[in-house]
Design goal:
The complex is a heterodimer of chains A (218) and B (307). Chain A has 5 helices and 9 strands; from the N terminus they run βββαβββααβαβαβ. Chain A is α/β, with parallel strands linked by helices and 218 residues long. In chain A, the strands form 2 sheets. In chain A, strands 6-7-8-3-9 form a 5-stranded parallel sheet, with helices on both faces. In chain A, strands 2-1-4-5 form a 4-stranded antiparallel sheet, with helices on one face. Chain B has a domain of 176 residues: P-loop containing nucleotide triphosphate hydrolases (Rossmann fold). Helix content of chain B is 30%, strand content 25%. In chain B, a hairpin with a 2-residue loop joins strand 11 and strand 12. In chain B, helix 3 crosses helix 4, helix 3 runs parallel beside helix 5 and helix 4 packs across helix 5. Chain B is globular. Classes of the chains: A alpha/beta (218), B alpha/beta (307).
């Protein structure tokens, strides 16, 4: 197994000893400047795997390494996870400007179309698509080295989806971030991961076949 | 079967202190659903698609005001009539799985819907068993509570709920996200079958390509209004409205190129065409007044330049 990149090795996880394994022996890696897709139907542990890789959960067995080191236990995590529902990932009592400054100072407000007029508003005063831009702007800063996008545009219309991905892919390419895209829309993953932002080899993994999880599907 | 003319929905909000303001979220919305037909409703996120469904069912919150005309089978939909029809003649497949009763096992939940639709208890149980089987839900699923099943399974349960009802009009609000592609196709196929049995079906979705496989007509919403109503066969070459064309181009399987800019927010709607600030065809005439919905090449479009 390589030591550079974001590497999940032999990951096992379950929510309680009485439950079946949600993540069973999954290994995967995302290199710098690489866009990797992850596809599986609902209930296959996609989001759980994302939380393991971003340090929200700790695996029962296996390890998550970034450039050969474990994830930092405190401070800003170089692996950042963007969720499907932005309204659940922001403090509803904070104004947008405070939400944006939660981690590092954001650098991409203009390019993501985060309007200065939004900064004084509260999260419920923005639409889902607008709030998702805020959630993305919050993590696009120099301290972020790997991005995990868990169905971040599933509930958005095609035009907003294309707008958001255009900006994220440009940033990922410019700053050579590693990007793991989780989704079930084959056309979108194909567009993002094959001949997409990165000139390096891009892959789409299918979680329904754990043993072949590292084999490209397209 | 369902006829919507000039629908408007606005909410009364508290601004600061006791100052109230009106927020108009749907303006001049027109839509028609005939028996035996599937109408897909697509469009921008936050353009009022789900609100339309809630208006038809009469389940908008108390601070909402509805204007315009909503008619079902020729009769106006009054709040009292809505309450009587929903669940019986009009069924909703809701967008969020949070609409299931968390304290009731899913089997009895679906069976209750079938019984409300007029089936005997035994017939309802048979219908539930058959429908669960059809959607690849194990018989043991019937004995589970909503929190014990995955998101995809919960969605299939919601679809089953509408399928076992005897409703003449089925409104499906985003029935397919999170579903395995084969089950998504199966779900849409079943909605088509419901229409072929003579019911009217309205499918609200982002997945334009999937919708085109089953829909007769497609209504495109933008900023709370209908900008175009096209036949499914009009996609992609014969589309009339610039927003519909932009939406089609921005699909990942097509060009994946978005138009810049954002849908105007409800408190800052322009006086003219709602799409004017992003439109490649913009002329000063567009800013003068809201274009009316007019007939062009057999479809309806709200644009003065479409031909």
């Amino acid at each position: 197994m390589q030591t550079n990149g974001l590497v999940g090795q032999g990951l096992w996880f379950r929510y309680s000893p009485r439950h079946p394994w949600t993540v069973r022996d999954i290994s995967l890696s995302v290199g710098q400047g690489e866009v990797v897709g992850l596809m599986a139907p609902s209930g296959y542990g996609k989001t759980t795997l994302a939380k393991l890789l971003a340090g929200y959960l700790s695996p029962h067995r296996g390890s998550v390494l970034v450039e050969g080191n474990p994830l930092p236990r405190r401070g800003y995590c170089p692996v950042q996870l963007i969720f499907q529902n932005p309204e659940l990932t922001v403090n509803p009592r904070w104004r947008i400007e405070r939400i944006l400054r939660e981690g590092q100072a954001p650098t991409q407000l203009d390019r993501l179309g985060v309007h200065p007029g939004w900064l004084r508003r509260y999260p419920h005063e923005l639409s889902g698509g607008e709030l998702q831009r805020v959630a993305i702007a919050r993590v696009l800063n120099p301290a972020t080295r790997y991005l995990i996008a868990d169905e971040i545009t599933a509930m958005l219309d095609a035009n907003t989806q294309a707008q958001i991905w255009q900006t994220v892919l440009a940033y990922v390419q410019q700053h050579q971030l590693g990007l793991l895209v989780i989704g079930h829309d084959a056309a979108l993953l194909k567009r993002l991961c094959v001949g997409g932002a990165s000139p390096k080899e891009n892959r789409i993994l299918d979680l329904t076949q754990p043993t072949t999880a590292l084999v490209p599907q397209f | 079967m369902l006829s919507i003319r000039q629908l408007g929905v606005s909410f009364t909000q508290y601004d600061q202190g006791l100052n109230q303001r009106q927020l108009t979220v749907i303006t001049d919305l027109d839509l028609e659903v005939q028996a035996g037909e599937v109408v897909a409703v697509v469009g921008a996120s936050g353009s009022g698609k789900s609100l339309l469904a809630h208006a038809v069912l009469g389940i908008l919150p108390d601070n909402a005001q509805v204007t315009g005309s909503l008619r079902f089978k020729g009769q106006p939909l009054t709040p009292a009539r809505c309450a009587q029809l929903r669940g019986q003649d009009i069924a909703l497949i809701p967008q969020s799985v949070g609409y299931l009763d968390p304290l009731m096992k899913v089997g009895p939940q679906v069976r209750r819907v079938a019984q409300l639709g007029g089936l005997s208890k035994a017939a309802a149980q048979t219908a539930v068993g058959r429908t669960f089987n059809r959607y690849d839900l194990l018989p043991s699923t019937q004995g589970r509570y909503p929190f014990q099943i995955s998101g995809g399974m919960a969605r299939r349960v919601l679809v089953a709920t509408a399928v076992v009802s005897q409703a003449d009009l089925v409104i499906a609000d985003e029935p397919t996200p999170g579903l395995h592609p084969e089950i998504a196709t199966e779900t849409l196929t079943h909605l088509r079958e419901l229409a072929d049995e003579g019911r009217g079906v309205m499918v609200i979705t982002h997945d334009i390509e999937a919708a085109l496989q089953i829909a007769d007509r497609v209504a495109v919403f933008y900023a709370g209004t209908t900008v175009e109503i096209a036949a499914a066969a009009d996609f992609p070459e014969r589309l009339r409205h610039p927003y519909t064309q932009a939406l089609w181009r921005s699909l990942p399987q097509n060009d994946f190129i978005p138009v810049p800019g954002h849908q105007p927010s409800p408190d800052q709607l322009p006086t003219g065409c709602l799409f004017s600030d992003r439109c490649p065809w913009f002329t000063p005439d567009c800013a003068a007044e809201r274009p009316a919905l007019r007939s062009v090449r057999g479809g309806l479009v709200r644009c003065i330049h479409a031909d």
